């Protein structure tokens, strides 16, 4: 089994045809077909069913492809690291963040950071948590900010603070009249559900609602809190959400209240190991910590923002 044979198989799986694979590899279509045949011979099993001139992956191909992708991800990480080393300059910072942090903590931290690096170019990527992890592991970004990550090889973490999730509803919703909302209050309500490629991040939220889950209407699924707050402002649902985006949505027919039992999630920043020698990056982490200390979202009662 040779690298070019595996590469041909991978491009066929990703692009769907030998012609498209040939274009990616800058070789002829017959050459790709030959590489594929040689690979199947060396593996001892067929990778595609050939029907009516089209290739259909076999079950064995699907299983083999998962391992191939893991191997190529490792190669792409090495290529990304090498490129980063070649092109690194002290005047550029690449940041990845969840959407809620990108619209609240991040602007304040960058404002502080720019006092010391006014001419630095900053690129911001807004992603879900699972995408943040991939960008860190491939060194595509210098820093990521969001929910605190688990311990991962090759990634350093710094804790920022715990944020208490809040209940949010449209201002004319009956529950808006209550001072504190409990899980029991949500029975019969349309309650937003968070979906993510890594649901483990939301286990505590799911646990707090588990006792009444069967009595909730959960027919609106969201993958960002800003989308959730927009649904709430339109009167489509209520939700238990992170408190940061409430800064943007409060006053737009959205009210927030404390939710019991209290749900806290740790937030943090992370960067590839050995990256902190980057002078600008070190300064930016300090700016994040300084700004976070003054944010009410990291206080015990985030609903104090409304008082």
Automatic annotation (TrEMBL):
Domain HTH lysR-type, residue spans = 1-58
InterPro entries linked to this entry? LysR_HTH_N (IPR000847), LysR_subst-bd (IPR005119), WH-like_DNA-bd_sf (IPR036388), WH_DNA-bd_sf (IPR036390)
The alphabetical list of record keywords is: DNA-binding, Transcription, Transcription regulation
Domain of life of the native organism? Bacteria
Q: Which family is it part of?
A: Belongs to the LysR transcriptional regulatory family.
| Name of this protein | LysR family transcriptional regulator
Q: From which lineage does this chain's organism come?
A: Bacteria, Pseudomonadati, Pseudomonadota, Gammaproteobacteria, Oceanospirillales
């Amino acid at each position: 089994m040779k690298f070019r044979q595996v590469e041909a198989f991978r491009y066929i799986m990703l692009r769907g045809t030998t012609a498209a694979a040939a274009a990616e590899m800058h070789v002829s279509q017959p050459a790709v077909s030959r590489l594929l045949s040689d690979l199947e011979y060396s593996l001892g099993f067929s990778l595609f069913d050939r029907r009516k001139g089209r290739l259909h992956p076999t079950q064995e191909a699907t299983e083999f492809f998962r391992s191939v992708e893991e191997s190529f991800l490792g190669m792409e990480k090495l290529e990304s690291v090498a490129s980063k080393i070649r092109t690194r300059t002290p005047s550029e910072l690449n940041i990845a963040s969840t959407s809620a942090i990108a619209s609240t903590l991040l602007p304040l931290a960058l404002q502080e950071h720019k006092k010391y690096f006014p001419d630095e170019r900053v690129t911001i990527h807004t992603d879900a948590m699972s995408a943040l992890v991939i960008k860190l592991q491939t060194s595509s970004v210098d820093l990521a900010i969001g929910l605190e990550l688990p311990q991962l090889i090759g990634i350093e973490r710094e804790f920022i603070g715990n944020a208490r999730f809040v209940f949010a509803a449209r201002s004319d919703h009956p529950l808006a009249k209550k001072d504190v909302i409990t899980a029991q209050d949500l029975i019969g309500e349309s309650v937003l559900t968070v979906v993510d490629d890594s649901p483990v991040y939301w286990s505590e939220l799911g646990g707090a609602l588990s006792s009444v889950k069967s009595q909730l209407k959960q027919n609106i699924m969201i993958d960002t809190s800003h989308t959730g707050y927009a649904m709430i402002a339109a009167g489509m649902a209520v939700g238990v959400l992170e408190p940061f985006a409430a800064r943007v949505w409060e006053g737009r027919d959205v009210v927030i209240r404390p939710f019991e039992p209290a749900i806290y999630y740790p937030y943090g920043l992370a960067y590839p190991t050995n990256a902190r020698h980057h002078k600008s990056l070190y300064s930016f982490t300090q700016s994040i910590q300084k700004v976070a200390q003054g944010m009410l979202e990291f206080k015990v009662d985030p609903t104090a923002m409304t008082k």
